[in-house]
UniProtKB/TrEMBL annotation:
Record Pfam families: HD_5 (PF13487), Response_reg (PF00072)
Entry's Gene Ontology molecular function annotations: phosphoric diester hydrolase activity
InterPro entries listed in its UniProt record: CheY-like_superfamily, Cyclic_di-GMP/3'3'-cGAMP_PDE, HD/PDEase_dom, HD_GYP_dom, Sig_transdc_resp-reg_receiver
Protein name in the entry: Response regulator
Domain of life, source organism: Bacteria
Keyword NADP appears in the UniProt entry: no
PANTHER family per the UniProt record, alphabetical: CYCLIC DI-GMP PHOSPHODIESTERASE TM_0186-RELATED, CYCLIC DI-GMP PHOSPHODIESTERASE VC_1348-RELATED
Modified residues (4-aspartylphosphate): D59
Amino acid sequence: MSDPAPARPTLLVVDDTPENLALLGGLLRGSFHVRVANSGLRALQVASRVPHPDLILLDVMMPDMDGFEVLRRLRRLPGLQDTPVIFVTAMDDDRDELAGLELGAVDYIPKPVRPSILLARVRTQLELKSARDQLSDRNASLEHEIARRMRENEQVKSASLHALAMLAEARDNETGNHLHRTEAYVEALLDRLRQSQEHADMDDDYCRMVARAAPLHDIGKVGIPDAILRKPGRLTASEFEQMKRHAEIGAAAIATAMSRATPEPAGRQTEAVSSGALRFLEIARQIAGGHHEHWDGSGYPSGLAGLQIPLPARLMALADVYDALGCRRVYKPPMPLDEVEQIIVAGRGRQFDPAVVDAFIGQREVFRAIAQRFADDDPEPPTP
């Protein structure tokens, strides 16, 4: 069975003279579907009907609304911004032709019309329109495919990173819910901070990367002995010193991954990080290495203070403490959330960035909702 013949293009012919409409319609109907309009207003009405015309032949000199004004209004109508328009007119002033072309007309045919010239130019413009439409369709299809693959890559990356983070947490008797909670806490803090003038410049991509990097905060625990990680009680001073090394181990591991991903000289690698090529890994490195630093400089591993501590690490510091206090550990029962909140607020300007604590206060109920939504299976859950 043969393929159906392609649909004939639809042309709209606009002229206030019936004789001209009859002449042009007679020339074109053998090859095209032809619609006609005898005024500018009628042309706008007919052109707005779906399916829209593939090409418009438009007279310039018409009463009430000339062709120039018709074209201006056509370009403001949905679906007609790119429809090719050919002016067909008795006006022979070069300035009139230039004015029409500047408004977006694709051609200018003088009257009296020569049939062979008219048909040739109409077919040329329809072929160009068909080529543009095909290119647009292909671009749209390509963009859709790229977007689909990017979503798949993001899903794979997110799942891989989460699995990697869970390996570290599993060695520490933690659950996957700890990762979900802390990521959600960081996201809630970012949402609040962006409402302040000081942090209004944080873009969506940056905030998304910070939240997604949060589960990697304790990745360095893979380098800590099991006897310390899984000890069913409080650590000795010596054991705690070894435990503190997980921040350095995590930051160093991510830094190594960055250097292998971009085997460039130091200056060019810095450029790659700032341009976004390694932005996510840099954020993860900041979180892993700095989430135990304190605002007053009393934290570890580097004793950074204030704004020396990267913002992602300052956010993770509060989220991690909130979750550690409010959840059961092998060495302690969960703390009531009222007491957890009091400790967080008391640490403002000492352990925690004051702005981050203020954001937490504004998101207190959101934190509680997150804690409840991702609660561990605990026979004695934390009480408000």
